[in-house]
Amino acid sequence: QVQLAESGGGSVQAGGSLRLSCAASGYNPSSYCMGWFRQAPGKERTGVAFIDSDGRTMYADSVKGRFTISKDNAKNTLYLQMSSLKPEDTAMYYCAADLIRPYCVASASLFGYWGQGTQVTVSS
Fold first, then answer.
1. How many CB atoms lie under 10 A from the CB of residue 53?
2. How far is CA 114 from the centre of its chain?
3. 20 to 30 A from 12, CA-CA: which of 67, 89, 91, 108?
4. Partners of residue 5 on adjacent β-strands
5. With bands split at pLDDT 50, 70 and 90, how would you rate the model's confidence at 31?
6. First to last CA, the chain
7. How far is the C-alpha of 113 from the C-alpha of 86, rounded, in Å?
């Protein structure tokens, strides 16, 4: 049974940092693409960052240079280090796994497994 559980969200002031974690169970996360998505109220869910089985990463233009995705295969955990946070980063953040492809395609429809989400709120 595949499960993804996010943690680490919270409220910070603009310019601050947060680290999100996603604990994966029920499969080997090192073999597939994993990613972070976010959804603000009234907006579509959008891709933030992705990491494939070889550790190659992709980022949305809006977070490049500020966010870093990484994974610890020994701990089956995915991370998202967020720095220089802006009010527009406020959203529910979701961890997701594509258990078909080892490479990443940044489309939410291709990710079959999702966590419950963790809220990130950035105040100005």
1. 18
2. 10
3. 108
4. 23
5. confident
6. 41
7. 28
| CA atoms of 36 and 122, how far apart (whole Å) | 17
Q: How far apart are alpha carbons 61 and 10 in whole angstroms?
A: 23
User: Which of 1, 53, 6, 56 shows the shortest CA–CA distance to 27?
Assistant: 1
pLDDT at position 20 over 90: yes
**Closest to 103 in 3D by CA, of 70, 54, 69, 67:** 54
Q: Which DSSP string corresponds to 6-22?
A: EE--EEEETT--EEEEE
Indicate left, alpha or beta for 65 from its phi (over 0: left) and psi (-120 to 50: alpha): left
Q: Which two tokens stand for residue 117?
A: 């989400």
Across all residues in the chain, what is the average pLDDT? 95
Q: What is the pLDDT of residues 63-117, one digit of tens each?
A: 999 999 999 999 999 999 999 999 999 999 999 999 998 899 999 999 999 999 9
Dihedral angle computed from the Cα positions of residues 53, 57, 58 and 61, in that order, rounded to the nearest 10 degrees? 160
- Three-class SS of residue 96? strand
Paired tokens of 75:
């701990």
